[in-house]
């Protein structure tokens, strides 16, 4: 953003946040305005910084596992999966097939729960109140399954290094099927409310455009990248946890605008249901934990594992020095990387568009500040 000395009498610097209902957390955006037109946007972060990576370097591998749930607290199951896969790669172990299938089911349920919170709050930002009640209603059904499985609803610590700690409860498969049967018609309801709504289209179409070249330059991933037309999904490109055995589509957009990002996420929820049904129907029997030592001392080396979290590529880089604690632990969070593109997306738009663009990025500040 240009220095304040370059401002002329018609330009204004405005602070949006950090305590603001449309910043989806403690995010401060310094807007440079010419009337209602945005000339630049500077993000100020760090209000929620907790030093998660440094905590990880001072805890054993098992002790640190619950901490990752608190980063993207809307998609804590995905956080746990990425971390477990990274440590398992260091240990050269693999979770048994049953554990992998349960991981896929819970992770896709979590993807739906995350997208539902995004849709409800995004619509509320734009001015539509009804969808947030509908989305939170359906999200409760997914959280109920998490609660029955491991006792937690939000910071769901569902996995353990090497597999699962808990076997599925009686009726788990029936609950998952019932959720999918209930949920798919509800997605159609959301679309009836929004997709063809004239106000919704006017507020989202041709707003916050980010093309493929810009996405690559900023390192943007997830639905934001796919909305620009890139068919890139780590579940297909670099399959993990047995995703290669499931049949599903990668929804992509054409224009890379806020409306396309909305459509991509809507279709992703349908595809998540499709994966859940397949995983439940062929859920294998067998053990839920692989052979891992009680005292974990991975051999000297390093590992990087990334997964397709609801918001994009979530990666864990771990360096082992042969002790019970990581020598270095680094997280590559999608919200943090995607937020870089906010300035590019906002330039030339209006102040009201900034609200829509922050909503369409689907950021969580717990993951950005860590």
What is the name of the CATH topology?
A: Cytochrome-c3 Hydrogenase, chain B
Number of domains: 1
N- to C-terminal distance: 25 Å
Helix content: 40-55%
Number of helices: 15
Could you state the order of secondary-structure elements as H and E? Answer: EEEHHHHHEEHHHHHHEEEHHHH
Beta content: 5-15%
Strand-pairing-aware structural class: alpha+beta
CATH architecture: Orthogonal Bundle
| Low-confidence runs | 1-5
CATH hierarchy class name: Mainly Alpha
- Rounded Rg: 21 Å
Q: Which sheet architecture does the biggest sheet show?
A: 3 strands, antiparallel
Task: Describe what this molecule looks like in 3D.
This protein is an alpha+beta fold and 370 residues long. The chain has one domain (11-369): Cytochrome-c3 Hydrogenase, chain B. The chain is built from 15 helices and eight strands. It has a three-stranded antiparallel sheet.
Quickly describe the structure.
With 370 residues, the chain is α+β, with helices and mostly antiparallel strands. The protein contains 15 helices and eight strands.
Any chance you could write out the topology, listing elements then pairs?
Elements: E1 11-16, E2 28-34, E3 37-44, H1 52-56, H2 61-64, H3 76-91, H4 97-126, H5 130-150, E4 159-160, E5 163-164, H6 172-194, H7 198-204, H8 212-218, H9 223-227, H10 234-237, H11 258-281, E6 301-309, E7 312-320, E8 326-332, H12 334-338, H13 342-346, H14 351-361, H15 365-369
Antiparallel strand pairs: 1-2, 2-3, 4-5, 6-7, 7-8
Helix pairs in contact: 3-4, 4-5, 4-11, 4-14, 5-6, 6-11
Features:
single chain, 370 residues, alpha+beta, Cytochrome-c3 Hydrogenase, chain B, three-stranded antiparallel sheet, 8 strands, 46% helix, 14% strand, disordered N terminus
């Amino acid at each position: 953003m240009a220095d304040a000395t370059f401002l002329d009498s018609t330009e204004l610097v405005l602070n949006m946040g950090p305590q603001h209902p449309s910043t989806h957390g403690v995010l401060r955006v310094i807007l440079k305005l010419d009337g209602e037109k945005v000339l630049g946007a500077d993000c100020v972060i760090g209000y929620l910084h907790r030093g998660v990576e440094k905590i990880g370097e001072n805890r054993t591998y098992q002790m640190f596992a619950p901490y990752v749930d608190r980063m993207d607290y809307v998609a804590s199951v995905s956080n746990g999966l990425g971390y477990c896969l990274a440590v398992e790669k260091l240990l050269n172990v693999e979770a048994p097939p049953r554990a992998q299938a349960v991981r896929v089911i819970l992770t896709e349920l979590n993807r739906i729960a995350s997208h539902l919170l995004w849709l409800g709050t995004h619509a509320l930002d734009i001015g539509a109140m009804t969808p947030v009640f509908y989305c939170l209603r359906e999200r409760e059904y997914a959280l109920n399954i998490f609660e029955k499985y491991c006792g937690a609803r939000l910071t769901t610590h569902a996995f353990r290094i090497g597999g699962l700690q808990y076997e599925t409860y009686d009726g788990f498969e029936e609950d998952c099927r019932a959720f999918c049967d209930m949920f798919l018609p509800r997605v159609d309801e959301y679309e009836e409310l929004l997709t063809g709504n004239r106000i919704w289209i006017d507020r989202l179409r041709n707003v916050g455009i980010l093309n493929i070249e810009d996405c690559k330059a900023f390192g943007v991933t997830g639905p934001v990248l796919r909305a620009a037309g890139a068919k890139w999904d780590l579940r297909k490109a670099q399959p993990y946890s047995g995703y290669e055995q499931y049949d599903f589509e990668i929804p992509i957009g054409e224009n890379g605008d806020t409306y396309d990002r909305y459509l991509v996420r809507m279709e992703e929820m349908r595809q998540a249901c499709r994966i859940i049904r397949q995983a439940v129907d062929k859920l294998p029997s067998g053990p839920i934990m692989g052979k891992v030592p009680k005292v974990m001392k991975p051999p000297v080396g390093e590992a990087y594992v990334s997964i397709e979290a609801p918001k994009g590529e979530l990666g864990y880089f771990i360096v082992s020095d042969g002790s019970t604690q990581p020598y270095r632990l680094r997280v590559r969070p999608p919200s943090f990387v995607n937020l870089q593109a906010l300035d590019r997306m906002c330039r030339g738009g209006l102040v009201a568009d900034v609200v829509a663009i922050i909503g369409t990025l689907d950021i969580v500040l717990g993951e950005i500040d860590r």
